[in-house]
Hints:
The chain is mainly alpha-helical. Helix content is 41%, strand content 5%.
Amino acid sequence: MAKFVTIVLFLAVIGITGYIYLNFESVNFISEEPVSVSTNTGNRFIPGSRNSNNGDTTTNFWFTEGSTESLSGAAWTQGTAGYDDETLQTLKDLNDAYAKSAYSKEQIAYQTAHHVPSVEDYPSVPDQKWVQENVLSVLRSLRLPNPRKSNWLRAKPLTLLKSYYSPKADILYTGIPKSGCTNWKFTLLKIEGMFYDDVPNPKVHYIINRLNMANTVYRRKYNRNSLSSKYTYTVIRNPWTRMASGYNDKFSSSRAVKWQKGKVALQILRKYRDKNITIKDVLEEGFRPTFLEFLYHLAYDSPNDINAHFRPQYQMLDLSNVLFNFIGSLEHAKEQSKEIFTHFKEVPDISVPGPYDSSSDPRTERSTLFARDQFKNVPQQLLDLLYKKYKPDFMIYNYSNFTDPLFPFPIYHN
């Protein structure tokens, strides 16, 4: 009897230990080592790997002791009276300069002088085999299975909502907000003969729903299971510039803050500034989140409470159920679109509008310059949280940090 009790207790201890381990790992969902960054490489980080740099002294950029600034400072806990005079003036100057492109021109001149982006040093396009290896690393880190083929019957609702099938091109596209999706939707609609304007505009986001995989009628017409063998692609973007672009697009002006009828701005303001702020303050008085308040929202709130324009990109891809034949990088959109078009049954007589190339360098794009300028003032603790939450996005393309001269390109070597 005593031996039996001993065995039971032993098994119980093992079970409890395993439970604690699994739950700890589920909180820290990526189990790879923290990023090691050479002090001699401009704080370049390489997600999911170590950078020894021939024995140079290395430092852990993302997890070293950084700023200990309080996360509830006076600058973002003001009352319903709105911002103080100094903050208001700073925001006004920034927005006025941004609207007049003066900020952009000055920063472009500075960046060009210091980083000298040119056609000659334009980074090479990453190989898709390398990208797929990175995807496998993401799946392992999240403890998710690697699909042998797409299973659209099991695809998550959000992925279905962001995915579109073009019968004429005979391809599937999953569009991620703030990663060039407007241009790709425009292209697919032009192929289908559903869009007659010459340039992309907000109407594409409504018309494209006719091709949406979440549309019940459309899904029945093209059974999801029969789409498993279709060529499937998506495009992602450096998370830092995507955050900056999302903020500029939706919150950097009193006009933009009315997006979603002010509800998203109100959600952030009530949680990170003052719970008594009203929708009237947002729509009529022009109250809007600061960039720091916006980042707190991304770092601390549940993904389900974060609009698709800002939430991590990998969560919209459902990588364990959807096998992507091609995952593009917005930073290399022009070059990669040519390869994607080779898989279209009907090729459009237009190029994908608005992509970057050597004549329109992402390193001098406004969101890139804004990110460089703003993220350097963000408390290190907050940067750590953001990186951890968006780490799978960084891993898929080994994206550079905002301190790197290559930013926002992937770090890739042939």
